[in-house]
């Protein structure tokens, strides 16, 4: 039998090509639109959810997978693997980790399952999963993989530039006494999210966003980076062009934000996640 299976969820924003290359097992979040429920990435694409947002649909809810769905996946993997590492979005954002934990307890000793609450979302989670999955190809010792996962998790930094209104599910609540900014810059890591600054001019917000990112970069290091966006490829490409001369990197991923991120950040958001190598 194979040794360690790596599991995550669709909030990791992983490109399909990397999921297949690294044999990552992805459980979908569920998208409820009016009375219909869809499995993200299976029954409905990110683009289709974006279209619903653009059309002003107010009846969209993003739910975690059920314990029964986790049990089904874990049982199937137990036929091929002796151990499972299941890495998921922050438990502060939704109940995916809780569902996974319930499934683990219900399965008992059928398979050795370790569940990791990443504290992250989007490609913050995605970068963590990718690095652990790459290491799992060479390492058969689960304890070594868990030590690596904790080390990587603490090294990941993410930056977000939102446009317009956003929901406060995982971003800090703004002071309602202040006139709201149009463009807001946030930083996040496994500890949570922090508001850094706001702007009303788009061009200035994008340049200052790059400046903020660069202020958190060690010029002596090389990074793996991911650029993310919610229906805003144009500004994501601009971000790539602006950071190329400021950050040394040897790997770059472009990715669209999943439904739970797009729902909370709003359309038009862009971001960058970096991890030192």
Produce the secondary structure layout.
Blueprint: E1 2-9, H1 16-21, E2 25-27, E3 30-33, E4 36-39, H2 46-54, E5 60-63, H3 67-78, E6 81-88, H4 96-107, E7 112-117, H5 122-136, H6 142-153, E8 157-163, E9 183-189, E10 192-199, H7 202-215, E11 223-229, H8 233-243, E12 249-256, H9 259-265, E13 270-276
Parallel strand pairs: 1-2, 1-6, 6-7, 11-12
Antiparallel strand pairs: 3-4, 3-5, 8-9, 8-13, 9-10, 11-13
Write a structural description.
- This protein has 277 residues and is α/β, with parallel strands linked by helices.
- The protein folds into 2 domains: 2-29 and 64-153, Dihydroxyacetone kinase, domain 1 (Rossmann fold), CATH 3.40.50.10440; 157-276, Hypothetical Protein Tm841, Chain: A,domain 3 (2-Layer Sandwich).
- The chain contains 9 helices and 13 strands.
- It has helices spanning 16-21, 46-54, 67-78, 96-107, 122-136, 142-153, 202-215, 233-243, 259-265, and strands spanning 2-9, 25-27, 30-33, 36-39, 60-63, 81-88, 112-117, 157-163, 183-189, 192-199, 223-229, 249-256, 270-276.
- A 6-stranded mixed sheet has the order 10-9-8-13-11-12, with helices on both faces.
- α8 links the parallel β11 (223-229) and β12.
- The chain is globular and about 55 Å long.
- The model has no long low-confidence stretch (mean pLDDT 91).
């Amino acid at each position: 039998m194979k040794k360690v299976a790596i599991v995550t969820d669709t909030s990791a924003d992983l490109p399909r090509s990397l999921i297949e290359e690294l044999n990552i097992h992805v459980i979908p979040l569920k998208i409820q639109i009016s009375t219909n429920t869809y499995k993200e990435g299976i029954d409905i694409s990110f683009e289709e959810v974006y279209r619903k947002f653009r059309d002003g649909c107010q009846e969209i809810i993003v739910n975690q997978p059920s314990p029964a769905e986790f049990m089904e996946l874990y049982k199937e993997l137990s036929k091929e693997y002796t151990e499972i590492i299941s890495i998921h979005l922050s438990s502060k954002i939704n109940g995916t980790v809780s569902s996974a934990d319930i499934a683990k307890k219900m399965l008992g000793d059928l398979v050795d399952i370790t569940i990791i609450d990443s504290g992250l979302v989007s490609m913050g989670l995605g970068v963590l999963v990718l690095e652990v999955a790459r290491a799992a190809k060479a390492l058969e010792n689960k304890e070594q993989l868990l030590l690596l996962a904790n080390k990587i998790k603490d090294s990941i930094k993410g930056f977000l530039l939102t446009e317009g209104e956003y929901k406060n599910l995982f971003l800090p609540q703004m002071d309602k006494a202040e006139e709201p900014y149009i463009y807001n810059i946030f930083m996040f890591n496994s500890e949570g999210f922090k508001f850094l600054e706001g702007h009303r001019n788009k061009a200035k917000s994008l340049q200052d966003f790059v400046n903020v990112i660069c202020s958190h970069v060690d010029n002596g290091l090389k990074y793996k980076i991911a650029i993310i966006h919610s229906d805003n490829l144009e500004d994501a490409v601009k971000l790539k062009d602006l950071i190329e001369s400021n950050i040394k990197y040897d790997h770059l991923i472009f990715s669209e934000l999943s439904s739970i991120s797009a729902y909370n950040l709003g359309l038009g958001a862009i971001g960058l996640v970096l991890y030192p190598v």
